[in-house]
Amino acid sequence: MLRPLILALGLTLVACGPSFRDIQQTDTIEAYEAFIAERPNDANITLAKIRLEELYLEKAREMKSLEGYDLYLGKYPEGSDAKLRAKALEEREEFLYNWADTENTAEAWEKFIAEYPKAERKRRVEARRRISVAGYADKLDIGRVEVEPTNLAEDPDGPLDGFMFTADVTNNGDKTIKSLNMKLEFLDAEGKAIGSKKWPLVAPSAPGNMPIEEEWKVPVKPGETRAYWYSDMAPEQPGWAKKARLIPISIEFEGEEPADEE
User: Fold this and answer.
1) Is residue 171 within 8 Å of residue 177, measured between CB atoms?
2) Quick one: which of 214, 190, 196 has its CA closest to 204?
């Protein structure tokens, strides 16, 4: 009689499985999913479900992909935590925008507009600008960006307190460019952008309507090469390898009206 009782007790203990405290210490998606499946009436079931949802969002962030966010949003279409779901939706839009910025192709920007037609106006305008410039980008020959120490006050005897960025840009297309804004990206040793500045190759005025030298206002004709240059202090972000690249981000042609920006 005693033997069956001991056996039954052992089976009961095995069925109970790890305690909620054990699950918290393990703190994995698999552990929480098993706990919820095996003990749906446990007093800690609500806490387990909340933590599981948090872990799925953390996984999305670690995956650094749209698939990761879509996995979370698909699993929680309503979201037991409204604030957590709202944060995930916000982060997904941010991720897709940054992805389009990195890819810098018409297809990437069109994907962003298609998925977020009600994004803030600033982003929609930027996306349409980038689609426009992408159609002419293969006609722009952008040379290697040279990076040299410089004195920002243009004092030949002064300290080298900044850097000069220069590159040759050739218009190989059949249109005269009256405005071409560029993004200068600062790169780490692996070629990853860690910061950026925007400055034009040619434009009627500098960003913020600052004064601009007359040579920058002269349109770039077909077949012409124009020297890009920009000077600034070193990027504040650590890891800069004193390398940079140029990316065209908006373009206007002589004799054509600017694209409609809503």
Assistant:
1) yes
2) 214
pLDDT digit string (tens) for the chain, length 262 residues: 444 444 443 444 444 578 899 999 999 999 999 999 999 999 999 999 999 999 999 999 999 889 999 999 998 887 567 888 999 999 999 999 999 998 889 999 999 999 999 999 999 999 999 999 998 999 999 999 999 999 999 898 999 999 999 999 999 999 999 999 999 999 999 999 999 999 999 998 877 777 778 888 999 999 999 999 999 999 888 999 999 999 999 999 998 876 555 5
Cβ proximity of 197 and 246 under 8 Å: no
**What distances in angstroms separate CA 4 from CA 7, 14, 75, 184, 260, one per listed residue?**
5, 15, 43, 77, 82
From CA 182, how far away is CA 226, in angstroms rounded?
13
CATH class for the region spanning 139-253: mainly beta
Cα gap 222→161, rounded to integer Å:
37
Question: What is the amino acid identity at position 198?
Answer: K
Could you give the CA distance from residue 231 to residue 148 in angstroms, rounded to a whole number?
9
For 163, the enclosing helix (H) or strand (E) is strand 162-171
Q: Angle of helix 82-103 relative to helix 45-63, nearest 10 degrees?
A: 10
pTM to 2 decimals?
0.73
Helix axes 121-134, 82-103, angle to 10 degrees: 20
- The structural domains of the chain, with segments of one domain joined by +, span 2-100, 104-133, 139-253
State the Cα–Cα distance between residues 101 and 193, nearest whole angstrom.
11
CA count, 13 A, side-chain hemisphere, 205: 5
Whole-number Å distance between alpha carbons of 230 and 59:
40
As a whole number of Å, the end-to-end CA separation of the chain is: 84
